[in-house]
């Protein structure tokens, strides 16, 4: 990139520090209670990308001293069968966090699957209970990508109070919850979606932009407000995001790179919240990651 002005928000470095903290906390939990934090992943079907993501999460668990359990179900699994498998994990005291790898096959009711997760083990922040907690500013698990975005903004001293935040996208696991978390930080939030009119004009008003539209290079540099903080939550083939990175870097003050920005924070927060769940389910005595507003 030439003639760039934006400072890149290094999610890889921030995530590495969070992994270190999580490993320390997992070890403290084992030493003080004998409990090994455990994350269970549920994969339906044989989608190669989903299988790769699950392996990445299992590898990260191993490095952080967190046990992992893998449940792989055939693509023909019904909603009822998936719900039953998740309920069994919810009832298992040795499991502290449950992740259903999405997307699931089209014939499965994904929402029913998510709601089968015990809220106390919803470390991916996908249940209605977790969304309500985010919306009301109550204790609970954050959706991992939105929560990772907020931690990254904290790390780079972005004061959200009074800022106009524009969110592109309204998915239940990214767009909607990140808007709730921004609102909780006293930002003024505008949601944009596929039926929004005058999108470039709205983007131009954003002090903070979160792009989660699922379209490569969708956000153009000339749409951006000079000095805006730009969070690119997209990832596409060839390492492209939802934002034209080269053009945005000439306008924004802060920008998440793709890759290496939002992505690493997602898994890091998943593991931190798994330890939080293990602590909460095992008794007091070990600090929760949610008590820290930034990575130390």
Structure description:
With 296 residues, the protein is of the alpha/beta class. It folds into two domains: 89 residues, Leucine Dehydrogenase, chain A, domain 1 (Rossmann fold, 3-Layer(aba) Sandwich); 120 residues, Rossmann fold (3-Layer(aba) Sandwich). The chain is built from ten helices and nine strands. The protein is globular, with a radius of gyration of 19 Å. The chain starts with 6 loop residues before the first strand and ends in a 14-residue tail after the last helix.
Radius of gyration, in Å, reads: 19 Å
Structural class assignment:
alpha/beta
Question: The biggest beta sheet, please?
Answer: 6 strands, parallel
Report the end-to-end length measured between terminal Cα atoms.
Answer: 30 Å
How many β strands by DSSP?
A: 9
Report the CATH topology name of the largest domain: Rossmann fold
Order of helices and strands: EHEHEHEHHHEHEHEEHEH
CATH superfamily of the largest domain: NAD(P)-binding Rossmann-like Domain
**CATH architecture annotation of the largest domain:** 3-Layer(aba) Sandwich
Q: What is the count of distinct domains?
A: 2
Supply the CATH class of the largest domain: Alpha Beta
Shape: globular
The helical percent reads 40-55%
Mean pLDDT, all residues: 94
How much of the polypeptide forms β-strand, as a percent range? 5-15%
How would you write the strand order of the largest sheet? 1-9-8-7-5-6
Please report the number of helical segments.
10
């Amino acid at each position: 990139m030439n003639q760039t002005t934006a400072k890149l928000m290094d999610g890889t470095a921030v995530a590495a520090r969070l992994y270190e903290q999580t490993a320390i906390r997992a070890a403290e939990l084992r030493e003080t209670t004998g409990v090994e934090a455990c994350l269970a992943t549920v994969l339906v079907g044989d989608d190669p990308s989903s299988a790769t993501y699950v392996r990445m999460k299992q590898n990260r668990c191993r490095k952080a001293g967190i046990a992992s359990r893998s449940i792989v179900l055939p693509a023909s699994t019904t909603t009822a069968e998936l719900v039953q498998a998740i309920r069994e994990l919810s009832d298992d005291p040795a499991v502290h966090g449950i992740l259903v790898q999405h997307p699931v096959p089209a014939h499965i009711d994904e929402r029913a699957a998510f709601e089968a997760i015990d809220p106390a083990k919803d470390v991916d922040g996908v249940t209605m209970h977790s969304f309500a907690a985010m919306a009301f500013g109550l204790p609970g698990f954050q959706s991992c990508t939105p929560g990772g975005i907020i931690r990254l903004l904290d790390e780079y001293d972005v004061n959200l109070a009074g800022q106009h935040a524009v969110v592109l996208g309204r998915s239940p696991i990214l767009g909607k919850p990140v808007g709730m978390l921004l609102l909780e930080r006293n930002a003024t939030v505008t949601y944009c979606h596929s039926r929004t009119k005058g999108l470039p004009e709205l983007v131009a008003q954003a002090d903070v932009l979160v792009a989660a539209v699922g379209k490569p290079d969708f956000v153009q540099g000339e749409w951006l407000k000079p000095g805006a903080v730009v969070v690119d939550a997209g990832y596409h083939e060839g390492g492209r995001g939802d934002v034209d990175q080269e053009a945005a870097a000439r306008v924004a003050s802060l920008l998440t790179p793709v890759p290496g920005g939002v992505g690493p924070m997602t898994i890091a927060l998943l593991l931190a919240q798994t330890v939080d769940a293990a602590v909460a389910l095992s008794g007091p005595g070990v600090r929760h990651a949610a008590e820290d507003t930034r990575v130390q």
